[in-house]
Amino acid sequence: MGRGKIEIKRIENNTNRQVTFCKRRNGLLKKAYELSVLCEAEIALIVFSTRGRVYEYSNNNIKATIDRYKKATAETSNACTTQELNAQFYQQESKKLRQQIQMMQNSNRHLVGEGLSCLNVRELKQLENRLERGISRIRSKKHEMILAETENLQKREILLEQENAFLRSKIAENERLQELSMMPAAGGQEYSAIQQYLARNMLQLNMMEGQGVSSYDPLPPPHHDKKSLELQ
């Protein structure tokens, strides 16, 4: 028959307990030695008896092994602490960003008149004032752009009128030279080309004047003393 299983519990008899301690202590020290030799492991073993006597084994300097253990546990603890702090920080930042996104989405919905049931009278008044200020800025910018474009059209109109005046004077000079029979034969072609160019300028001027009236209703059309652009 095999040996019965021994229950692991405190041995009440002092003599038996001391004998068991000696046997198992020696067995533990032997196992530690074998492990260090077979596996080249760095081992430090410390045992205190009930009477306070210390027994130890180390295949290296036991103090150096203990210092190495303290350093390793400290690094592991610091690494875990740093990871936990980083995780907490990113969780908090993520929560803040989600809240900001939600607030911006709610604000955008309110600006288009949605989700207003959750607002009180004071908040609705604030939203109304905000929209009115925004509309005022939009109108101001629109009028500014219209004025700038109208000014550009007026400058273009003046330039075209100046060009037409120059061309009319050129045509009059050519006609006078023809009457005096001083213009060469090619002068007729130059005269015809100038007339065509003048006609195109007049067409552009008329189109610009039409745009100045129809495209910008919010502003009154510019008042000018229009010069006659017809050929003399």
Automatic annotation (TrEMBL):
GO terms for biological process: post-embryonic development; reproductive structure development. Residues 87-177 form the K-box domain. Keywords: Activator, Coiled coil, DNA-binding, Nucleus, Transcription, Transcription regulation. One of its GO terms (molecular function) is DNA binding. It is found in: Nucleus. PANTHER family: SERUM RESPONSE FACTOR HOMOLOG. Its main location: nucleus. Residues 213-232 are annotated as: Disordered. SMART domains: MADS. Probable transcription factor involved in regulating genes that determines stamen and carpel development in wild-type flowers. One of its GO terms (cellular component) is nucleus. This is Floral homeotic protein AGAMOUS. Residues 1-61 form the MADS-box domain.
